[in-house]
Amino acid sequence: MSVVVMSMGAYDEAEHERRERKNNTVDVSDDDDRTTYHGTVEYDSGDSAEALLDQFEEIKAGK
Question: Rounded to an integer, what distance in angstroms lies between the CA atom of residue 12 and that of residue 19?
């Protein structure tokens, strides 16, 4: 009796090739244009790490 065991994450060459073929055949229609974004992006870095830790301690204390 012969048992073939493949561990989780074992390399499967046939599956790799199948996925490679699938990913190389993406249909693109003429109306698939990328949108150009004009504007600015801003972000708020928020409170300092110390202020966030203080707030966390207040929450843990039930205040």
Answer: 11
CB distance 47 to 53 below 8 Å: no
Q: How far apart are CA 47 and CA 54, in angstroms?
A: 11
pTM for this entry: 0.28
The Cα–Cα gap between 62 and 53 comes to 14
Whether residue 55 is predicted with pLDDT greater than 80 in this model: the reply is yes
Q: Are 55 and 47 in contact (CB under 8 A)?
A: yes
| Residues written for the chain | 63
Per-residue burial over 11-50, b if 16 or more Cβ lie within 10 Å, else e, is eeeeeeeeeeeeeeeeeeeeeeeeeeeeeeeeeeeeeeee
- Rounded CA-CA distance 29/31 in Å is 6
